[in-house]
Specification:
285 residues, six-stranded parallel β-sheet, globular
Length: 285
């Protein structure tokens, strides 16, 4: 068996073209979805992510505003800026690019963003809504993963899903979204004993640990669906995932590559959430 590769890059193009049409329709009604991004400091990875977000926003017609602030910016200054944006009715999405400098409390910043403009889906109110199965802004990477599975008509209901990694950004929320789709979910993490017993039993395996080739084909059940969230740069400069792709694709039924897998879907779902926020504000269903 050789797995079918799920290219998030291709699905992202399809979805962004649909969004472009939707935004054109909103603009004709005088509604322009707007995303404001705050970038603190000059972390190269963060700058690269922000550029990608701006480019995608431009493509679909979402207004994109960037505030670049020095790494010396105080927590108080950042909270003041967020408060101004919360009150600005032209802004539908607020995103503070993580990670933040050490002197700023990340959780305080996440909680300061209005839940109605929290297009990253990290505010405790939106996390609570997700936990209780309510409609809300879902965290973008997990939301992208579920969208990818559905695009291939992969059955989630009743399946055994194993999530390797328990970060607040990917691991925990993707497990919750899989549970919301009626999967039976197991979380594995750094303290899990005999992890392979779980990964080899998974119908759907989501790997998000940030360690190159953490799992190989030997750790995967025949016919499993493998979603690789990791992005790791090898010494030779190439990007690779948390799963050893070549051996895993001989065992899996579906697999995502790195790059061109989950990554492009994250920005796509951010745009989806921003458009949704604009529609919510103007009471368009």
């Amino acid at each position: 068996m050789t797995a079918e590769v799920i290219y998030g890059s291709e699905l992202a193009v399809t979805l962004r073209n649909e969004m472009k049409e939707e935004v054109e329709g909103l603009r004709k009604q005088g509604i322009t979805p707007k995303l404001t991004v705050i970038l603190i400091g000059d972390d190269p990875a963060s700058q690269s992510y922000v550029k990608g977000k701006q480019k995608a926003s431009d493509y679909v017609g979402v207004d994109s505003e960037l505030f670049k602030l020095p790494s010396s910016t105080s927590e108080e200054e950042l909270l003041t800026r967020i408060d101004q944006l919360n009150k600005d009715n032209s802004v539908h999405g607020i995103l503070v690019q993580l990670p933040l400098p050490n002197h700023i409390d990340e959780q305080a910043i996440i909680e300061a963003i209005s839940p109605e403009k929290d297009v990253d889906g990290f505010h405790p109110i939106n996390i609570g809504r997700m936990m209780t199965g309510k409609d809300t802004f879902y965290p973008c990477t997990p939301f992208g993963i579920i969208t990818m599975l559905k695009s291939k008509n992969i059955k989630i209901d009743g399946k055994k899903a194993v999530v390797v990694g328990r970060s607040n950004i990917v691991g925990k929320p993707v497990g919750q979204l899989l549970l919301n789709e009626n999967a039976t979910v197991i979380y594995c993490h750094s303290r899990t004993e005999n992890m392979r017993a779980y990964t080899k039993d998974a119908d759907i395996l989501v790997v998000a640990v940030g360690k190159a080739h953490f799992l190989s084909g030997d750790d995967i059940k025949e016919g499993a669906v493998v979603i690789d969230v990791g992005v790791n740069r090898l010494e030779n400069g190439t990007l690779t995932g948390d799963v050893e792709f070549e051996s895993a694709k001989e065992k899996a039924s579906f697999i995502t590559p790195v790059p061109k897998g989950v990554g492009p879907m994250t920005i796509t779902m951010l745009l989806h959430n921003t458009i949704k926020s604009a529609k919510n504000f103007h009471q368009i269903r």
